[in-house]
Write a structure and sequence with these properties.
mainly beta; Immunoglobulin-like; 4-stranded antiparallel β-sheet
């Protein structure tokens, strides 16, 4: 082994990534104007986390935990983003008051490390950006155009760009993750009233096709249709989806009031995680698992005289590899954009020999 690689590996071994282990499933009830809470391992009903006795919540959609640990809910019926105590669900007021910045039927809120909150605004065909600390309007991040009709769910991909579902024109558009500039239509076929989307552990894109009662898989680099990933499981107008602490895929089935679970690697139906109507659930659309503790994941490194190969379990919450050559400086991390391959039960990423004293980590994809 040459000295350059040996030195690099010595530093890598001390820099294994950490990611959140999630607990408790929170589900928006569109029909009930409430948020329900279920056990993260069994799906058993716990309680109505946000009973909405004050009536502030109107047509709840996407949910997100903020950097302050509180829960934020897109309240589409009154064009606002509401804040609730992350521990007991008590109403704490509006982070984004009604219509601020032109917000019109918000669907998906995303908090980013840059200190901003991004919100898809379905009826104005935009994505708007707000300061995460006080909800002050920053700017229109994604402008209205013919490429996007009815933005619903959205996610930042492993390439750092923003992928937004166009519910009404049955496509996925891609935007520059830094500027919001349109990069083109990423997916234009094999979707009918799409809602939710997420990248999987191998960095392919999964999109819920609501009218087809299925989840479609598209190649993560080209957007080309690959296969129907998941169907059945008694899905009836599926909407949002997310990954659970077991690294499987959870899909909200709106019309039969349940949360279905699918094997995240094969798409095989694993049955109802939350049975239809459990605890009074009606019209589930979006959901989130509560962030809990931080624990180390497994990142293996092998080497040769010409390069390195990073590896991690295929059955894991989707993540991306990042490199830091600046001595672990907080702002020194950048994505490793090499192709991720599935090899048996592991994901592998090969790269040329990095600079001496490089650090690697895995970071969760949205």
């Amino acid at each position: 082994m040459n000295r350059r690689i040996a030195t690099t590996l010595a530093f890598i071994s001390a820099a294994l990534a950490a990611w959140p282990v999630r607990a408790e499933l929170l589900v928006s009830s569109f029909n009930g104007n409430r948020v329900f809470r279920y056990h993260e391992a069994t799906g058993a009903f716990i309680d109505i986390f946000i009973p909405n006795t004050d009536g502030a919540l109107n047509l709840p959609h996407g949910l997100a935990f903020g950097p302050d640990g509180h829960l934020y809910v897109a309240s589409a019926g009154n064009d606002s983003v509401l804040r609730y105590d992350g521990t007991n669900g008590a109403f704490l007021g509006s982070l984004v008051p009604t219509g601020r910045g032109g917000l019109d039927y918000p669907v998906r809120p995303i908090f980013r490390p840059d200190g901003f909150l991004y919100v898809s605004s379905q009826l104005s065909d935009q994505v708007l950006r707000y300061r995460a600390t006080d909800g002050a309007f920053d700017r229109v991040f994604v402008s209205a155009s013919a490429s996007l009709d009815g933005p619903s769910d959205m996610t930042f991909g492993p390439d750092g760009h923003l992928y937004v579902v166009g519910r009404f024109n049955h496509r996925v558009a891609r935007y520059d993750g830094q500027t919001g500039a349109l990069l083109g239509t990423f997916v234009s076929a094999n979707l009918s009233q799409p809602f939710g989307l997420r990248f999987n552990s191998a960095h392919d894109l999964l999109v819920v096709s609501g009218n087809d009662n299925r989840v479609q898989r598209f190649h993560g680099r080209t957007g080309a249709f690959a296969t129907t990933f998941a169907a059945g499981g008694n899905l009836a107008l599926p909407v949002g989806m997310t990954y659970g602490p077991d690294a499987n895929l959870y899909v909200a089935s709106f019309s039969n009031n349940k949360i279905a679970r699918f094997d995240a690697l094969t798409g095989a139906a694993l049955g109802d995680f939350v049975p239809g109507g459990s605890g009074g659930l009606t019209g589930p659309n979006f959901m989130v698992f509560r962030p809990a503790t931080i624990s180390a994941t497994t990142l293996s490194i092998s080497n040769s005289p010409v390069g390195l190969t990073l590896g991690w379990p295929a059955r894991s919450i989707p993540a991306m590899a990042e490199i830091n050559t600046g001595g672990m400086a907080p702002g020194g991390w950048s994505p490793v954009t090499n192709v991720v391959r599935t090899v048996g039960s592991t994901l592998q990423l090969s790269l040329d020999t990095p600079p001496t004293n490089a650090f690697f980590r895995l970071r969760l994809i949205e």
